[in-house]
Amino acid sequence: MDLQFEVTSQPDDEAVDRIRLGLSAFNASQLGTAERTPLLVVVRDRPGRAVMGGLTGYTAWHWLHVERLWLPDGRRGRGVGASVLARAEVEALRRGCMGAWLDTLNPHASALYQRLGYSVFGTIENFLLGRPRWFVQKQLRNGTA
Fold first, then answer.
1. Which of 30, 55, 103, 138 has its CA 20 to 30 A from that of 89?
2. Would you place residue 28 in the very low, low, confident or very high pLDDT band (cuts 50, 70, 90)?
3. Helix/strand/coil for 130
4. What fold does the segment set 36-139 form as a domain?
5. pLDDT tens-digit profile of 39-83?
6. Which residues of 26-58 are buried (b: 16+ CB within 10 A; e: fewer)?
7. Which is nearest to 97 in space by CA: 39, 26, 28?
8. pTM, rounded to two decimals
9. CB contact at 8 A, 63 and 101
10. Are 36 and 44 spatial neighbours (Cβ–Cβ below 8 Å)?
């Protein structure tokens, strides 16, 4: 078999699309289709003002994946993060999700998620600078979709 392998830090869009679409087609053949629907929760100090933090993620295959949840220092530890996450979970339930998952390197965030009902389902010890990386999940409703 004559194969050529290329390693690059600057992939072209055609190659990325081919891999993405190929994996999506394979997954659809095994698990059914799952369109990723973006989900965004924005925090502003007043309507119409600049974004001061929030959550980005998506729903797919009846799960919410939280990609990022960030708040500025002055808003942490005051229940704002819990409120942001609760709004994302409500929207995920509206979309038919049965659970939510995310990962974090922050021990304070990991503790927050666990207080909010998330459980650790995986850890990579010494992921970066001696810190672990936690993977957490939460059931949003019972049963399967």
1. 30
2. confident
3. coil
4. Aminopeptidase (3.40.630)
5. 999 998 877 788 889 999 999 999 999 999 998 887 777 888 999
6. eeeeeeeeeeeeebebebeeeeeeeebbbbbbb
7. 39
8. 0.83
9. yes
10. no
Residue 8 structure tokens = 């690059």
Name residue 41's amino acid.
Answer: V
Question: What is the C-alpha separation between 135 and 26, in angstroms, rounded?
Answer: 25
Instruction: Give dist(CA 98, CA 124) in Å, integer.
Output: 25
**The residue count for the chain:** 145
User: pLDDT by residue (tens digit) across 99-130?
Assistant: 999 999 999 999 999 999 999 999 999 999 99
The phi and psi torsions of 84 (rounded to 5 degrees) equal -60, -50
Q: How far apart are CA 89 and CA 132, in angstroms?
A: 25
Q: Indicate the helix (H) or strand (E) that contains 64.
A: strand 63-70
The token pair that represents 27 in the structure block: 């997954």
Contact 22, 55 (CB under 8 A): no
In percent, how much of the chain has pLDDT > 70? 97
